[in-house]
Amino acid sequence: MLETISYIPILKTKRAEFNALNQLDTFTKSKIIPLLEIEPVPIDPDTDIPDKTYNEMLNGFERKILSGCDGIPIVFLDGILIEEQFIASTDTYPIENAIIQARNAGFRVIPVTSPTRSVDYKQSISTLVQSEICFRLTTTDLVNPQLITDYIHELQITPEHIDVIIDLRDMLSESDVSSGHSKILALGLINNFSNLQRFRSISLASGSFPIDLSGISLGTYSQTRLEWTLWQALHSSGQLLRNVIYSDYGIQHPDYSRLATRFPSVTASVRYTADSDFLVFRGQVANRYGYEQYGAHSKAIVTHPEYSGNSFSTGDKDIDNYAREYTQYLQDPEGNHKFGSPEVWRRIGQNHHITKVVSQLSNLYGL
Hints:
Blueprint: E1 7-12, H1 15-22, H2 26-30, E2 35-37, H3 54-57, H4 61-68, E3 74-78, H5 94-104, E4 108-113, H6 119-126, E5 133-137, H7 139-142, H8 145-155, E6 162-167, H9 174-179, H10 181-191, E7 201-206, E8 219-224, H11 226-237, E9 245-248, E10 270-273, E11 277-282, H12 286-289, H13 292-302, H14 314-331, H15 342-365
Helix pairs in contact: 1-4, 1-15, 4-5, 10-11, 13-14, 14-15
């Protein structure tokens, strides 16, 4: 089954991401294995005390993954964001709790781990291995290959049942990618990986989307999709010793960041993936300057040369609908017009992005 997979999108277990996955078409679902990062417990920004226990937060996770990932054959589940200092004495270890629920829902769930995770995390993972595992390896893991070898032996599993993700996270820079330095680094990490040919799959992940939009001015902003540029250079070089699956963080930065206040001032901004770039349509604070800004962004997208068309994905159809709604708003500003919320637009952006990547891999490379 993994032979047909071309893309591993790395997502959080948020409602917007689950909805983005749910609304993918059948072909796109057949080409991906989403890697879902379990969110940390919410923290009260005034007291720095958790609002919930992990058990409370994960209550109903079975229903969420059943709804969000219906039709997706395999899911990677990762507890990398778990904050062990906030695990209550009554909590089941969160990665164990989530995976058991997902498996009870009938999903083929592959646990994600690495040799540098905590003792408690690895102990929990050891009880969850069912003949297959995913190693998500950062440079911290890769500098000590003996740790990887020892961990494989500890889990009593062979490389043929291990999926490896080499995760560069936010290491890529415009200068390193354009100069070829990133390509040389990636080739070294992949081709020199011990027993490279024995592992079930090898993937390369990274993400170059900004950590936030604070440094972006109002209007339209464009930034190169460095992770896509790098993967294309590697794929076309003929220097890789085996096939490498593409993986990225979509329209979000690899690092998880909590909101600083309980009622944040969120700008009406839209993220849209183009052929080679991320486009950001930057607005002002929505609850002060109006949610109709999302409508104006929609109008700008559907008239942009990089717009994929309203039949490309559910997200693109929604953008077209909001653009039409904005036209009506301009004619009758007093009417009951809806332009979505930050959550809706995160769902739209991720749904379009995943569809875009699968389409590019299929049309450009036959994957």
